[in-house]
């Protein structure tokens, strides 16, 4: 069996094991654990999308929350029924054609990504000529503009009241299906010539320009593709929570996604996935410190907010002692696993 056939077979087995786990989880895990498992998949999609922009292309972007908001609202408008829209829009009647728009869930998620990508393209053309901290500030500003616009377009978005009763289509199958699509796309992109150009721009943009590379074009494409998957992640998150409002999509949400990416390792697809799993589970596990604890006759009161304090300390320790993240720029691949085992066998 040659290497390519072996890798395809192993990938197929891994996907089959994931499908078996999802089937098992639906029948054996409680609602809370299923929710956390769903969050892992959605957060991994968001981490991969930001890693493409920041980790592989070197663009410090803080606009992810805005693209997620667009995706969440587009999906909500396309999956809600006409009766739900008529009842829910209190401040202003919902405008046509949004009142009659409806689409299947898969199509609505695709449309959510496309709208986010289109807005990202409009933002990228004037903004991506900046660099470093200036780019981060500009994208943060655009994300805030998107949030304010969503708050004030009450005839489309229901304003500050938000949207409730969104159909909860985003179950384990949908979330992990989209995760696999995102993962497959990112692996193919990063391992292609296009991905090699993105890494060259990240490492030394001036050198890349001197080699004749149209760096602006590649940066725009990377930013737009990353925004597409941020829109997909926002759509899945909105369907998972079944309730959205503009306050959900503040800078704190972008910071969370940045946390998954940096903790896992900038420039590592494997790191984005591992970082999403570790940080999502850690954030949920640390909720225990906010609840009262009884030891015999002694009771320790819960401290609200202590979860984020401990998490911040853990994050500081990661930055101090593992600045490059869990994986750095390394990847876990089938070839790497088998080559390492062969080297281990020879050394013995």
Q: Give the N-to-C terminal Cα separation.
A: 25 Å
* CATH architectural name: Orthogonal Bundle
CATH class: Mainly Alpha
For the biggest sheet, the summary is: 2 strands, antiparallel
Number of domains: 1
Question: What oligomeric state do these chains adopt?
Answer: single chain
Q: What letter string, H or E per element, gives the SSE order?
A: HHHHHHHEHHHHEHHEEHH
What is the radius of gyration? Answer: 22 Å
- Structure classification: mainly alpha
Give the helix level as a range of percent. over 70%
Q: What proportion of the residues form beta strands (DSSP E)?
A: under 5%
Q: How are the strands ordered across the major sheet? A: 1-2
- Estimate the global geometry from the Cα principal axes: globular
Counting DSSP H or I runs of 4 or more residues, the number of helices is 15
Average of per-residue pLDDT values: 87
CATH topology: ABC transporter involved in vitamin B12 uptake, BtuC
The low-pLDDT segments are none
Would you count the extended β strands for me? Answer: 4
